[in-house]
Model the fold of this input.
Amino acid sequence: MTSRTPPLTHLAICPDGNGRWATQRGLPRIQGHKQGLKAVWTAVETCIELGIPYLTLAVFSSENWRRESSEVTDLLELIASSAHEGLEVFNRLGVRLRWAGRRDRVPARVHERIKAVETATAGHDALTLTYQADYGGQDDIARAAQRAAQDAVEGRLELADVPGAFRSYLDVPEVPDIDLFIRTSGEQRISNGQLWQLAYAELIFLDVLWPDCSAKDLRNAVARYQQRERRFGSALHGTNYEEK
Done:
């Protein structure tokens, strides 16, 4: 059978397990998040080595506001600091940073620092790294629908054109659909990720906690992806099987 697995263009990761990693070691949860940053750089470097041009990381979901206020504050500041302090590395490696998610609820300091790095790296093309910060897949679609409806009401968009144009209203519309979604820590769910872009993604769940996720773990996951058949609803060549 001829493989129909196309090149891996967009890898998305839900980097789960930072808090449990810290708890297992008797450390504050923020120490787990700090340790998880090392795995972020590992993922960036691995994608560049493998020639994967798009990487998305779920760094702060819209549901994370439910956590203790002190952890929320520390985590948002860590995200902003990692982007700001990583600018030199982004420039050296040719990494463009993008932000998917709401920008009206995070503290101004966080917004300004991430936005500044977005602007500074806009011309890079070795890897597009998307931070999902205050992001929820349902919220992304709902906000896109609101913007499309407003344009339709005000005459900038014909109703008949909404299906074809809808993607352009999503956060980071220029980033292609996700090919492979990886979640660490053994949890097997997508947790309100990029629902529109995940429609035909391959899913792989790793038992390793995110701070312990190595380049080998990621390469093995990519190798598993490359063994899969991606049919997008069509029949397999040479078989009678049709995907339901």
